[in-house]
Every structure is written in C-alpha cells, then in structure tokens.
Amino acid sequence: MATFAGKRGLVLGVANKRSIAWAIARRLADGGAQLAFTYQGERIEAGVRELADSVSSPLVTACDVRSDEDCGRVAAETSEVFGGQLDLLVHSVAFAAAEDLEGRFTDTPRDRFWLALDVSAYSLVACARAAEPLMEAAGGGSILTMTYLGGERAVPHYNVMGVAKAALDASVRYLAWDLGQKNIRVNAISAGPVRTLAARSIAGFPTMEAIVEERSPLRRPIDADDVGAAAAYLLSDEAQNVTATTLYVDSGYHSMGM
User: What region does 56 belong to: left with phi over 0, alpha with psi -120 to 50, or beta?
Assistant: First the structure.
C-alpha cells in the first residue's frame, strides 16, 4: 500500500459511504494522510461529517463548485488547517439534470448544457487554480479527477455528461502542462460502472453494468475499492513522473471494439 504519511489532502465529492471519493479517501487515510472534505448541500452534510470524523478530519466545509468565491474560501480554510500547504486534491464532482440523461442529447437546453459543463468540468479548473499556491508551497502536489468512457465514445443516455467529460479530459491535459513546472501532477481515472448515488440517475445503468461484465476482457465488474487502489497509485510519489494521463479501471472494456 502506498504511503501518505505527512501528506495533506482535500477531497471533493463524497456523498455517502458508497462514493468513489470515499473509497479514495479511505485509501489515503489508511496510508497516513490528513484529509479535509467538502460537501454540496445540507442534505448530505451529516453523512459526510460522520465519514470525515471516522478518519479524524480537521475540516469539513460546504463548497459550491460553481462559485469561484466558494472555491477560494475552501482553499483558505484548507490552508489554515494545513499550515499553508496542500499535497493532494481529489476532484470527484459531476452533475447533469436527470431529464438530460434520459431523452435525446439533441434536446438538451442551453442552460442545462452549461450547468453540466460548469459543475463537471470547469470546477476542476477552478479548484486547481485555488489549490495551486498551496501545492507550490508544499514543493508540488498531485491532482486527480474522475472521468468516464462516455467522454470518448457515445454511450446511450450519458448525453450531455459525456460532453462534459470530454471537456474534463482536455482540461486535465492543459492543467498538467500549466502546473507541471511547479511539480504539480494532474491525472484522471476512467472507471467502469460503479454503483454510486450518481449512477442511479443514469437510465439503463444496470444494462451498462451487464454489458461491461459480459464484454470486457476480464469479464467481471469493478467496485469503488478498485478505483481507490488505482487512485492511491496516481496520487502517490510512486507515480512522480505520471501526469496528463487517464488510467482506465474498467476490466479492460475501453479496449474493445464492440
């Protein structure tokens, strides 16, 4: 297991114990990292605080990733509890309106198109910008986001979220170029179908799971712990020369033609 002793991290996107972000956070905490957490909305606050308490988190705070001011405030609060430095940033945030994951992509209204891209893609840029001075003060850092194959290929019902993931994928590459000179790495994990709260909003999700299990080279499903293990590698010093990269954790499904 990768060691994160002395590392300080900020995790965005934990909704409950089944969240991919929580699986990643557990790996980091088990390796010795100190972690701060954000939550989106009062509905999940209590649950996130309970999980954060289980790993002795020094900070749990609200964050609306659509607001630059909120991202800046979270960075300031994180700086205060971690002595002005940050080593790790986990971005596991995405959103599209449920109705836009059911019908035709063609019918996506303009306002909800931009909402999906703002929350799912631009938020990484905003958070990276806010974290940059803290990581520079730490001598470098590692940023990780969560993407999906639907950003590269058309996946039925993924619709506007696929377009948002394509923007996220490109953002990873450009951020990696900008921040690399400060020893800040930026990577992504493309996970196969994992049963999370967000996955429930995708029409036909059980079918997606079945197809991946049937047609992937390994012919087996994946879970959040698989993603957590891969994330631990990318965030660790063992991956010190890995940046601008997408690591697929999908039993090899991404390699198949049909």
Answer: left
Residues of the chain with pLDDT under 50: none
pLDDT in tens, 139-151: 999 999 999 999 9
- Count of CB atoms situated within 10 Å of the CB of 95: 19
Around Cβ 183, how many Cβ atoms within 10 Å? 15
Measuring CA to CA, how many Å separate 166 from each of 96, 114, 158, 254? 14, 14, 12, 15
Q: What is the pTM of this model?
A: 0.95
pLDDT of 211:
84
Residues with Cβ within 8 Å of residue 237, at least 6 apart in sequence: 2
Give the catalytic positions in this structure.
Answer: 148, 158
Per residue in 175-198, pLDDT tens?
999 999 999 999 999 998 886 656
